[in-house]
Specification:
The complex is a heterodimer of chains A (302) and B (317).
Chain A (H helix, E strand, L loop, with lengths): L8 H5 L11 H36 L4 H5 L13 H32 L4 H15 L2 H13 L11 H25 L3 H9 L4 H12 L1 H17 L25 H9 L4 H33 L1
Helix pairs in contact in A: 2-12, 4-7, 4-10, 5-7, 6-7, 7-10, 8-9, 10-12, 11-12
Chain B lengths: L7 H4 L5 H43 L9 E2 L4 E2 L2 H30 L5 H16 L2 H27 L14 H25 L3 H9 L4 H30 L2 H7 L16 H8 L6 H30 L5
Antiparallel strand pairs in B: 1-2
Helix pairs in contact in B: 2-11, 3-4, 3-6, 3-8, 3-10, 4-6, 5-6, 5-9, 6-8, 6-9, 7-8, 8-11, 9-10, 10-11
């Protein structure tokens, strides 16, 4: 058909039913493609259920007060709990948060509130993306060389502190990114209003801008903490492991993630069971944190 | 009666010096904190490079192409680990990309009521939150025994190819690839979903207006418009997959013998680090650092390419 000659009416009215014809090639293709997409979506959801079911069944049946308050047994013995590992995970994650949140929020404030769009802010944002992509095991290697082998903390090698610092390196990019992006969403008028009534830059940022961006920042920070709590690779040769209760910040400390790793590959049934139990506690904590983050961001929207 | 305050009271209030000091101090503080990102990044590169210097001098580029890993004779080559890192990452993405993209299309393109779509999205996001060490535990005790019959079937039917030439016996490269699929799937789905959601509604309306079917619109209009972000997401997940440590370490078998077969135990750079770094000394530490440098360069290149892809190919319509 030439584009130059206008089509005749009959060309329009030839096979002209406007009814949906499932036998058409295009409609059949549509159906098949729909089915494939649905199948893929089902495939994507299945692993979550399989993992959750096993963790809940295998780990949940061991749940008891003893599990949460006792020390793990020596290899080959039965019973015991993961109390020291739960405490250790909390301690190490807390150290990481105490470092990464102030540094990250400060860095995010600089990028959004002070930085001109020059080479420095471009470099920091690029560096932040690169840092976010650095494999977590490399963070462990880095802190191992920097802190563990140099023994800079009171001549101690492996320590809870080293583990916490390694985790903070991992958290930092998340906190900076969410702070920066959260602050960008704060309308410019709020800043102008604050300057207009005579507030200084410092007061504007701490009293007006940061509180206005609280929701996205808090969401990102909670997600960052949840991710750090489950990390293992940076801890295996920084915080190491300990079968005892935590002995201060400058000694090796047990964490749930390292306990799972160590106990999963042990040939003892009791240890394997504790690994499942620790997975249960860890997964509940992390999924709880994720739902909390989601709740924070939904609560402010409505 | 009180008189109105003199104009000076408004105009001549100078900012007290301490207020200025706080302002300047705060600015400088945040500047330093922002710079800390660069400092940490540089410190990581310098530490790992300087740790690897000795091995680089001793083994040179031969390190990348030989597969001896012999602490007794102090012969080191990272070929097994490099091969394992690349093979597991690339094959897992080949499986995960179609599934993730299909899921993203399924939950963005009006195939379902909104509530159901959001639910599937939430479930996939929660999958991303499960710690890798828990997935590793699950892989050891649940997944690997469950898939072994299928792997055996692969071996009996395709055993004549080098990739399936060995009998599956517990940990190996194939289970590691599958657990990596589970780990990168949520990332690919989330990024593709955002990319598809950002395609302007006018493009969809235009496509449907000229009478295309849903999948006609998806393949010819929507996917081409979103391709740059999706590619960026795929590259990002490639970086993740190469650096992923725990789940892979627990299921790959950590073999020191080179084998092309996917059913045999293998190794990756990160699992070699996780297994040996704590107990290594002397030149072995340096050799492990050398391997870490290789891993860092690989992930760095992939991540920079990811950012470049997103910026370079950014939506053309």
């Amino acid at each position: 058909m030439s584009y130059l000659t206008p089509p005749t009416t009959s060309q329009f009215t030839q096979r002209l039913t406007l009814h949906y014809d499932p036998a058409l090639k295009r409609n059949r293709f549509n159906q098949i493609a729909n089915a494939i997409a649905a199948f893929f979506a089902a495939l994507a959801v299945v692993p979550l259920f399989l993992v959750l079911i096993y963790v809940l069944i295998q780990g949940g049946r061991l749940l008891s007060l003893r599990l949460l308050t006792e020390l793990p047994p020596a290899p080959g013995l039965e019973g015991g709990g993961i109390g020291n590992a739960i405490l250790g995970t909390i301690v190490v994650t807390l150290i990481a948060s105490l470092i990464a949140i102030p540094v990250g929020v400060g860095g995010g404030v600089y990028l959004s509130e002070y930085a001109q769009d020059g080479w420095f802010s471009k470099f920091v944002r690029f560096g932040n993306d690169v840092l976010a992509g650095v494999p977590s095991i490399i963070c462990g290697v880095f802190i191992y060389s920097l802190i563990v082998t140099t023994r800079i903390f009171f001549d101690q090698s492996f320590s809870a502190m080293a583990g916490g610092i390694a985790l903070s390196v991992l958290m930092l990019p998340t906190v900076i990114k969410t702070t920066y992006e959260g602050l960008l969403l704060v309308p410019q008028e709020m800043r102008m209003g604050a300057y207009g009534v005579g507030a200084s830059r410092f007061v504007t940022i701490t009293q007006i801008t940061l509180p206005a961006a609280f929701t996205p920042i808090a969401t990102g920070v909670v997600l960052g903490i949840a991710r750090a709590a489950g990390e293992t690779a940076p801890l295996i040769f920084t915080a190491l492991f300990s079968p005892f209760w935590p002995e201060g910040l400058f000694n090796p400390i047990a964490t749930m993630s390292v306990l799972i790793f160590n106990f999963a590959i042990m040939p003892y049934e009791a240890q394997n069971e504790l690994a499942w139990a620790a997975s249960f506690v860890l997964v509940i904590m992390i999924l709880g944190a994720n739902l909390l983050a989601r709740w924070i961001s939904n609560a402010s929207r409505s | 009666m009180r008189s109105a305050p003199p104009i000076d009271a408004f105009t001549l209030r100078r900012r007290p010096p301490q207020e200025k000091l706080v302002d300047i101090g705060f600015r400088q503080l945040t500047l330093v904190l922002a710079a800390s990102v660069g400092i940490v990044l540089l410190a990581i590169f310098l530490t790992v490079f300087s740790g690897a210097r000795e091995a680089m001098a001793t083994f040179g580029l031969k390190f990348l192409t030989t597969s001896a890993w012999d602490p007794v004779n102090e012969e080191y080559g990272a070929l097994i680990a490099i091969y394992g890192t690349l093979v597991t990452a690339i094959l897992s993405l080949l499986i995960a990309v179609p599934i993730g993209l299909g899921t993203a299309i399924f939950i963005t393109e009006d195939l379902l009521p909104r509530r159901l779509r959001d639910l599937i999205g939430l479930l996939v996001e929660l999958l991303a939150a499960i710690p890798s060490v828990v997935l590793g535990l699950w892989a050891i005790f649940v997944m690997e025994p469950a898939i072994r019959p299928f792997l055996s079937l692969l071996h009996t039917t395709l055993g004549w190819t080098p990739f399936f030439a060995t009998e599956p016996q517990g940990p190996g490269t194939a289970p590691a690839i599958l657990i990596l699929v589970v780990m990168v799937l949520p990332i690919i789905t989330a990024i593709s979903r955002d990319a598809l959601n950002q395609v302007p509604i006018e493009l969809r309306q235009g496509a449907y207006g000229v009478g295309t079917t849903r999948w006609g619109a998806i393949f010819n209009v929507i996917l081409p418009a979103a391709v740059s972000s999706i590619m960026g997401g795929v590259m990002l997940s490639l970086g993740r997959a190469m650096g992923e440590t725990m789940a892979v370490t627990m299921i790959i078998g950590n073999s020191l013998n080179f084998s092309v077969s996917l059913l045999a135990p293998g190794n990756t750079i990160s699992s070699m680090l996780a297994n040996q770094f704590g107990e290594a000394d002397g030149i072995q530490v340096s050799a492990l650092m050398y391997a870490a440098v290789v891993l860092m360069i690989l992930t760095f290149v992939v991540n920079v390419l990811a950012q470049w892809t997103v910026r370079r190919l950014s939506l053309r319509y």
